[in-house]
């Protein structure tokens, strides 16, 4: 995928920020405290954002996964509690799951290479056997997991969850989602009569023995549907029927299952903070491609609900991952050759997903208050990304590549972005529990990796 008008970015310094920083004493001695919290055994639960996923994969050749936001938080917590347990993550090796990179083409222009492209970073052979299921990990982040998958209320739900996350006898081969293979999900629920035992993600939370937790579950309950162009992604399994892989999770189901996670932490006496869901329609995957980007006056799109072909409006969004197909096939230039709906979030779908995100965030806030847990308002924070902001003297925004926050997949932050997120969590922890965890210097962390970096 060739990038349009992307340049090497020189950080823009804010003079007032630099001036104010000079007023701080270099010799200030701070006594670090956990406050009312206990960081002895910190556990993080969540999805790809928690796991440290970026650039379309899980990789660690430049400490990307080692600098997941929970790992950054854990290192800062240790300054308040030097005796806290080691924060253990299931680190990948080599190329990990495979990932996108920036390269230069024959004309010297920057281009994004997918793992399958010539010169791309394909999955490392070690990823097939990644993780040690007997290890008790602190970072329980699983890329792709949604709240509707963390527990099964009946046999069919348990079968679907196991097919997605566990070792699958029902479908054969590997689970549909390889990013949970470091955890032991036990036997196939269908063959449970053979003496095996099956586990849900919620069981991993219950076994965690956390004294403190962070919870950032829920993004995939709206994101998957969005990235699939407002489609729930159905396929059929014999004996089960239709399985939806990317539904918009119903509010009542979300409430019940999210509550089960917080009950588990509450029952073990843990304290912690929960993060709200960002507006998935404001990320580069959704906002980058438009008429100006493609240098055309108008674009023809296919609507989702009706299949109607019409001109794109400013309220309709084109998904970034469809850019290559659009450019190679002249999609959208004429009514007879519109952009396929899988690459489009039309205005009605945009309104639907924004409304569902607001509803799920209300649930998160209500349940956090019910158990007296803190809240990190990631929805508001990531809105700030969209409008642009200065931090530690450097300007950031949600622009693809140029903005300095998001990685090459247009969905997940880069390492610098994860450091920013870690600071947001630290602020919420300090405010809720009277701790004084020090924040990190964001500019000490890597952003996008350019060729020859």
Question: Main attributes?
Answer:
single chain, 453 residues, alpha/beta, two-stranded antiparallel ribbon
Tell me what you see in this structure.
InterPro entries: Ester_Hydrolysis_Enzymes, GDSL, SGNH_hydro_sf. This is SGNH/GDSL hydrolase family protein. One of its GO terms (molecular function) is phosphatidylcholine lysophospholipase activity. The structure is a single chain. The chain has 13 helices and 14 strands. With 453 residues, the chain is α/β, with parallel strands linked by helices. A four-stranded parallel sheet has the order 1-4-7-12, sandwiched between helices. Strands 2-3 form a two-stranded antiparallel ribbon. Strand 8 and strand 9 form a beta hairpin. Helix 3 (69-77) packs across helix 13 and helix 7 (251-267) runs parallel beside helix 11 (347-370). The protein is globular, with a radius of gyration of 22 Å. The protein starts with 14 loop residues before the first helix and ends in a 20-residue tail after the last helix.
